[in-house]
Every structure is written in structure tokens, then in C-alpha cells.
Amino acid sequence: MDNYQRREFVKLSLASFAAVALQLNGLSALGLNANKFNGFSGTKPSLNWEAFLEEISKLAKTQHTKNWNQSEYIKAVQMVLLQCNFPEFDNFKKATANYKDVRKNWFEHELLHKEIDFQISLLQFEKGEYISHHDHPSMCGVIKMVTGNALVKNYSIHELLEKEETKTYGDKSFVLKSCLIKKENEEILLPNKISSLTESEGNIHSLMPNEFTQLVDIFTPSYNEKSDKETKWFTVNETEPFDGMNNIYEAQYLKSSS
Ligand SMILES: [Fe+2]
């Protein structure tokens, strides 16, 4: 009886072994996949930092392909961002634990990751630390609100005008150029919500935090000397639309100074 049982056991084991061996590749893939997740955020598992970086890095490489579709890229980055729970990440915990409101009336910036193709930043604001209208030439960006909320407005260039104005302050002169911008979106961005801009749509934005606010942004490609130099800041006449045109506003930006 003992022998029979042992023989049956061996027979069963050999059959099971073959079946298990066939599944080994699948099991190993599942194991790797499981390692991408940090645990559970609500009902959904959230990506860990390494897996998050890997996903964004893979997506950001598409910017070098012919006919790169920025809108599709932005959507894909959004999907990845929605799988992240930043407060679980060690680098995020460290950056937020070390937070000090060093620059009065201006946000604090912490670079979480930077490579040529993209960069990821944590921005922390006290209530009212307003970022006025500015653009991101040759870049696209995705913002995920983590804590707090902010009024975010996005505009696109509608028309460049010939109109110029020179203003003198002390011994300095500034030439301001006019343009018309189109409001694409205005919303109060709440935690876990996303705001985005592409090179051609919503590239000009402003942000007013209504309370202490933390957000993460991903810009593609990352900032460089050229993009820093080309960024424009706009003074927008938001009191009324230009010439009664729906969602169109007149704005000025600095053309040159001497
Ligand atoms: Fe910006």
C-alpha cells in the first residue's frame, strides 16, 4: 500500500512537473509584473518608482520618431501617471519631509529625475504663490495634482499682432509685442487630476494654488538652455475677450530690452 501510494505520487509529480515547467515562463513574467507595483492604492495597485520611470522613459523615446503624435504621447503619460501614488515613493517622501518655504511668493522646485528626453519635478506651493501666464516652447507637459488644488488656465497662440509698445523704467527700455491667445481650458485641478499641454495646444498656462499644494509635472523634452531662454511671460488682459471674440484675449510679451 505504501509502495502504491509512493508510485502514484511519483507519477502525479512527473505529470504535474511537465505542466508546471510549461507554465514557468508565464509565472516568471507574472512575477516580474508584480514587482512593478508598490501595493494597493485604493482598489488598484500602484506602480513603483522604478517601473514608473521605465514606462515614461520608454514613452519619451517616441519623440525621436518621425511624425511623433504629441497628443497620443500625452494620453499615454497620463495613463502611467494615474497608476502612481507619489506619496508612496521614497524620493517623494524625502522631498516633502524636507520642504521649507524658502522663496517667498514663489513655489519650491525639487527635481525628481532628469534626462535629456524628459524631466520629472515636484512643485510645492503655499497658498497664493501664483505662476502667471508663460509658455513652454518646443515642449509638452503633463501635471498631476497630488495635494491641495489650484486654478489652472491653458491658452494657445491664436494670432501674433504687429502692435508693439515701448515702456521705459529708469534707464531701461522694454519692447512689448502683442498677440491674441485662445483660452483652451480653465479648471480647478483637484488631487489625482491631470492637466496637460502640447507644443501647439494649451502651451501657455497659469496656476493659482488655493491652499498648500503639491504637484508633479513631466516635461518632454527636459528643460535646456534654449528652452529656458525662449520661455515667454505674458501679461493678459483677462477682464474681457478681445473685440467680443469668444475665449480670445489680448496679451503682451517681452520682445526685447535695452
Ligand atoms: Fe509651466
Quick structural overview:
With 258 residues, the protein is of the alpha+beta class.
Coarse morphology: globular
CATH topology: Jelly Rolls
Residue windows where pLDDT falls under 50 for at least 5 positions:
1-32
**Number of separate helices:** 5
Total strand segments: 13
> What is the distance, rounded to the nearest whole angstrom, between the alpha carbons of the first and last residues?
102 Å
The main pleated sheet reads as:
6 strands, antiparallel
- The secondary-structure class comes to alpha+beta
The largest beta-sheet arranges its strands as 5-10-7-8-13-12
SSE string, helix = H, strand = E? HEEHHHEEEEEEEEEHEE
What does this 3D model show about the protein?
This protein is 28% helix and 40% strand. It is an alpha+beta fold and 258 residues long. It has one domain: Sandwich (Jelly Rolls), CATH 2.60.120.10. The strands form 3 sheets. A 6-stranded antiparallel β-sheet has the order 5-10-7-8-13-12, with no helix packed on it. Helix 2 packs antiparallel against helix 3. The longest helix has 33 residues. It is globular. The termini are far apart. The structure holds fe (ii) ion (FE2). The site of fe (ii) ion has 3 residues, from loops.
